[in-house]
Structures
1.
Amino acid sequence: MAKVELKGNKIMQTKRIFIVLVIILFSTSMMYAQTEKSVEGNVDNLPVKEYTLTLRQEKVNITGKEVMGMTINNTIPGPVLEFTEGEYAVINVKNEMDVETSIHWHGLLLPNFYDGVPYLTTPPIEPGHTFKYEFAIKQSGTYWYHGHTMLQEQVGVFGAFVIHPKKETLAYDKELVLMLSDWTNEKPMSVLRNLKRGNEWYNSQKGTATPLNQVIKRGALGAQLNFWRQRMEGADIADIYYPAFLINGKQSIKYPEFKAGEKVRLRIINGGASSQFWMTFGGGYPLLVSADGIDVVPVKKNKTFIAIAEAYDFIVTIPENGEIEFKITAQDGSGTASAFLGNGEILKAPNVMKPDKIGMMKKMAKMDMKMGAHALKFRPKKDERYKMKKNYGMQMEADMKNMDMPKDSTMEKIPEIDMKKEDATNPTMKAEGMDMFSEYNYDYLKSLQKTNYDKDIPVKEILLNLTGNMQRYIWSINGVPLSEADKIKIKGNQVTRITLNNLTMMHHPMHLHGHFFRVINENGEYSPLKHTVNIPPMQEVTIEFYGNEYGDWFFHCHILYHLMGGMARVFSYDTPRDIRMKEYPVKKLVAETDRYFSWGLLDATSSMIGVNLTTSNIRNQFNASFEYGWNENLEAEFTYEYYLHDYLRVFGGVNIENKMPDNLDEFSTTVVAGIRYFTPYMFSLDVRVDSKLRPRISLGRSIMVFPKLSVFAYYEYQIDLGIINDLPINKDYISETVWSAGAEYMLSRNFSLMASYDNRFGAGGGLSIRF
Ligand SMILES: [Cu+2]
């Protein structure tokens, strides 16, 4: 009896295994069939529309200075690609540059292989090669395309992608694409290097630095100390100085072809590399009709925030004898650009006030807010997401809620338009309320249809804390940069709900490739669908999407410099990798976010000459320093250090010093090892012991006291207990103190004047050069 049962079980088992195998085989072949189908497209049935984009490196002149840019069909931005829903797009991207490139189709629902993230989904386009993208157009709306190879988008690799619906549902006469961007005359990689080394120059150039004198004048010293205690310099809004912000490639651009009475649909896309904007319109409240390519319940709204990579469509009516100004203001108030539509008297767009960084600091310090969540964890594999959320960020939500929360005065629902509220002659809008970030919520976006999912669909919850370290310019998620992270597994036919909890002082526009997600807001079931969502500092936003794709999809902050700093993840349906990607390992893409950057500092003064060289990636750093006093004192040191986490590193190396003061006859060479720690209140602490078993401690700090003027101080104490060296008779120990102090005035990005006193080299003045 037992035997039979066993046999039966075995047969059952074999049968089960067989069935499972068949299912696996079937689903795998289906998956490949699906891939194949997407590749071939439905060319037979769909009308084909073909474009060719040619990428070149050429000299461009945007701000009166000729620099190298990357153009598409000889323009920046590239041409507007126009399609109609139901067409089959064939786009040949020709790379005539000497570096590899790629194009990503932002917001488009397309086969994974054509998504355009090099090494992840799509092969990179090598110099001299052409890559043919092809996919069916299954949606309509305002989208865009951009390079996804490192920082190429910053110098020109972007353009608009407009899809007309089969049947237009909105009423308007004409349309115009307005592509917003930011422009730097520097090489973007050198911009990133400057951010990595922590150069204050950009802030001082923008006028957004907060030197101590201004902080004290505003009575914000307490707030500043609170920030410093948490190792934060202040409330940063944007990192990079841009000499120009652009609309369709120009700082000011006119469209006189629009006639009075015409309704114009503006398709506005933020193609900036790291700039978010406030948009304002002259001549009344425009009608917001669409967000991220999808139509929403129309709403009259003037001052509207546009995060990087977002798209908003507005309908404006050209007035009689009037020219509407459309204006963008960089979020940190560092610049504007305008477009003018129509003819006649200019109807000025309201000005947006420059944010008050010191005021923000004061308000933030009043709230119970824990800053300084690690951007680089000690144990990246350990799941500490919930602990992190609990320990950092806004500690008392009530603090925010109890504050006065005036309603967004810039928004009006259509039935109750009150045009008298609008005053074109008084263009300065009222300051926003106490709640600093309420103006950034998406409550004004309401979907036309219900977007919620069936309650029976299983939901997977994922918590993603957005983390960053401004001093080292590392950006990560849950304290783990892309280079140390695993793929995030998601499943088809399931809802993935993601809580994005921003633990940094910056805004992060997060973008998911190949999907639209619901941004949960006060409209509940009618929450809007988007492809990019901005998360304000210390705020939390929940998004969710239904898994109906296959392959791996990139999810990242769309501030290009944050993406390059590691704020990215791969969402994976865990399906087999496309065989066409065999030669293109994803580790290449990941490695780009963990590059080594090198920089140096040369001090040449009347008392000494010093050189400091640093090479660093996320975890590793090499330092070489050389100091020579004209009074014949010398110290040289070479160390390698490893970052255990943001603030703590272990190091080892070699130190060389002259044995006797003011005498270069004899040198002492020691091996050194110790820790370096970035302390609360932002001191650099170095604790070490050398091969003569002499312990040494040192502390250093630099503070900007006036615009461009910093003071610095350094103190070092070494003690010899005679463990190895012979001490002079009657001495239990001998000690040695080194200290220096001075001031530095920034002349330009690379030069500073400096004056210092060092107890080894004496007083001196001269030049400090950053290279
Ligand atoms: Cu970011």
2.
Amino acid sequence: MDPFFKNLGESVYKQWKKRNFDLTLFPEIARDALEKSKPSSNIDLQDLIHGFLLHDEQPFQSSSGFGQPELILYDNPKFYIQALFWLDGTTDIHQHEFSGAFHVMAGSSIHATYDFEKARSITAHFRLGDLKLKHVSQLETGSTVSITSGRNCIHSLFHLETPSVTIVVRTHADPGTGPQFTYLPPHVAIDPVQQDGLTTRRKQLLDVLEQTEAPDYSDLVVEMLGELDFERGFFILQNCIGHLRDLGTWEQVWNVFARKHGRLAAPVKSTLEEIIRRDALTAMRITIEDVEHRFFLALLLNLERREDIVRLVGKQYGGDALATILSWAEELIQITDSGLWMLDAKLPWITGLEEEDHPLIFLKALRYLIKGESSSGKIPTELKSLGARNFAQIKEIFFRSSWRVLIR
Ligand SMILES: [Fe+2]
């Protein structure tokens, strides 16, 4: 066992014992101990890795799939200390069934906190409500943040460097504070641990039908939605929305669910659309390697306010943040067989415009929308060649894409 973490664990134990192991005091005790001991300044990451690889005297290791990977550095019946490595970074928006504190030992992260307002339980494992972003900040190496269990501490982290490493001092589990909900913005909370084996197998079977291009795929989903309760209907829709959209039957299938569940269904539609948007951006992160572009994608994935994105781009790269974003927009243009793409905005070929002139005109349109000069409602001179109808169409496409957060 690494002597640094042995000392840290023993010191936390001593402090907490003095306070009779009061659970409400643990986050503060853990945070103070991490701030005082400062692993980021006092632990050499290479030494930690070598020590763990070469010495057998380590605490019991869990088989947890959290972290990439998770190393347990100190273990005690009341709490433990873990190092979490993050290679590709984003966590879901989640709450905890444990409490303590985490410390950014290497790398830095974007940290967002949320409230889940007007929450109502559909089942013990599924809730509806309004997820509201509270605060966004960049956590530098050396930052420490406390964690409380339950619904008052909902957050997400996006790790900027590879690897990022966090040290967590945490309880094993705080009774009565579960489930450890994962939040699907803007309106759904699900219990990720709850395993409904029958639904899992049905989703897999639907994937088989998708792969084999079964002609009755949409009809079967419609029939299932007629039979299923709200929660399981949601999971079937979540699984099938992508393929149903490709088939052109999504609206028809959605209407079956909406009719069946009435007002309860309304929050589900925007949640499913947001899942699709996030999945598309996450998939792009696999192919986009440029560090600045990945940073930008992370912001579009995780932030929903223009001012937060502008502030974080300015902080990270200095200068005029909007100009930086527009230069990324230019670099991110992709011309494929299916058309011209700027991230998830698929732009049309304009009749009468040379192919090579398209990127520039779309960039000008985006610059115009982002800089917020559209209040007069008129088309600027530089975009006149597009014509009013094309301009309106392009504006609509940007508004429906991930760029919308930046548009005034
Ligand atoms: Fe967390």
3.
Amino acid sequence: MKEHMASGDPVQAGEVPLCVPEIRGNEWNYIRECLDTNWVSSAGSFVDRFESMLAEYVNAKYAVATINGTAALHIALLVAGVEPDDEVLVSTMTFIAPANAIRYAGAWPVFVDAEPQYWQMNPQNVVDFVEQDCSWVAGELRNKTTGRRVKAIVPVHILGHPVDLDPIQAVAEKYNLSVIEDATESLGAKYKGQMVGHLGDIACFSFNGNKLITTGGGGMIVTDNEAWAQRARHLTTQAKDDPIEYIHDEIGYNYRLTNIQAAMGCAQMELVDDYIEAKRSIASAYDEILEGLPGIKSMTQAPWAESVYWLFTVLVDQAEYGMGSRELLGKLKDTGIQSRPLWQPMHLSPAYANLKPADCPVANRLYQDGLSLPCSVGLGESQRLVTDTLNLLGANKK
Ligand SMILES: Cc1ncc(COP(=O)(O)O)c(C=O)c1O
């Protein structure tokens, strides 16, 4: 069975999956090399090579490979100095991993609504929270209501599009907050000409099965901060201080990527620009065809952004299109086309029901109306089936 983003039942032959990996490069050769040479575990030349390729690609000085993106976020928070009972601002419209990573560090997420145009973390809400709901006490930013220290911001570049980071960076600098980019969904995207992942203090990527490039499961931390990179490497390898005596100077984690996975990552990285080009042409074909379809609004790219359109998503206006996003999901499924709603926003998640309720109307609407459409790099002719079906369903409801 092919890898896919589960939205219910497994994808069957002949169906159009949402987003599957593209494996057509040197994956077999490099993985075979690992097996032939016995370098299968977390030491090996492919891990170093994959790190260098990633660092070079996003223009960062250092990269540290991890077992997945969630582990990368956990470690990035720790090296950025986030401590138990701190607060960390994070997008509410995201997959749950960054919020969970904040809790793994013992800190508390403060959920920030999305902006309505590009659906990313709303920078004005970040500034308002910091300037109005916090105070500067003895060199630290404190939430006036909870009294907790606010230590970092995690902007999540969702769906392949960057967050508008300048206002966030400015307020972070003013109050000495770390900016930890969750760039897991946006490898290759650019903000004002700069690579996502090289905008904040430290950034994280994911290579799980549905991402632009995949290692099956994997992640990466990138930063220009040498001390942070060293600490990240130390923490991801059980904080082993003396390899002979097995002396560990603190409690570390077994988070390092294996050579086999990194081998796959190297092969995938060799084709990353081709994959991005494919994602962009899929997006422009959707844009063109769906433009005239009442009630379907495609994701848009900000003038200051270069999106990689990782997961092509539309908003479905129930009144105008004739059915809502969930009914459409069901109809597409009946036709063998897989689609998926956006994530339940974090401020609504039962996992975070113990936090103070947050008012995030934009994320609520995105959750209600959002639907991601098939957009695998190898989508090809199947895209026509998707757009024809959307047109037909819309016309039939009129
Ligand atoms: C926004 C976001 N952050 C973090 C992750 C976590 O990455 P991983 O699944 O590799 O742990 C993902 C995706 O899986 C994601 O979409």
4.
Amino acid sequence: MRFPQQLIDGYRAFLVGRLRLEQDRYRDLAESGQAPQIMVIGCCDSRVSPEVIFNARPGELFVVRNVANIVPPYAPDQQAHGVSAALEFAVGVLKIKHIVVLGHAQCGGVKAFVEDSEPLSPGDFIGNWMKLMAPAAVKIGPRDALSPAAYLASLEQANIVNSLDNLMTFPRLRTLIERGQAFVHGAYFGVATGQLSVRDVATG
Ligand SMILES: [Zn+2]
């Protein structure tokens, strides 16, 4: 099986386009190392690329993506935790100032949770992963009070807040936030409209 032609074509376009424009920046970043100020925790969804949405240049965003932009709670249990590892590096080494949890409309992960979908494999990795957003579902209340689409959107947004709450369970990050040395933000991207909503800390 050949390497996908789409990627070869895309890379060629990058070589003569963006790389040419950013060559010095890439060289500088290679020498001096990365020093992004902003971390984005986003969804794997191919329509919601943080670098594209925020028009980011190389070295500007430290990004971790997973199904449904979930931050699991702090759990120092010697198990493997991908998001926690990225957070540990972002906070401890990069001294990131801002952490943005970026949710989005039509999130397949949130939909799978709402529909209580059948496991896709014996491991039921998505099912188990999505259980982390159960507190968000409890907070927004019964689903029959809203239309299915409104409920989904409401849960997508509550899931962002749940991830923000879980960020506060990481002791070192919590201390930095309380000292005003780090900041967390919630944002929601409307795939069809391109509209970005940012959570108002004062009103929620
Ligand atoms: Zn998603």
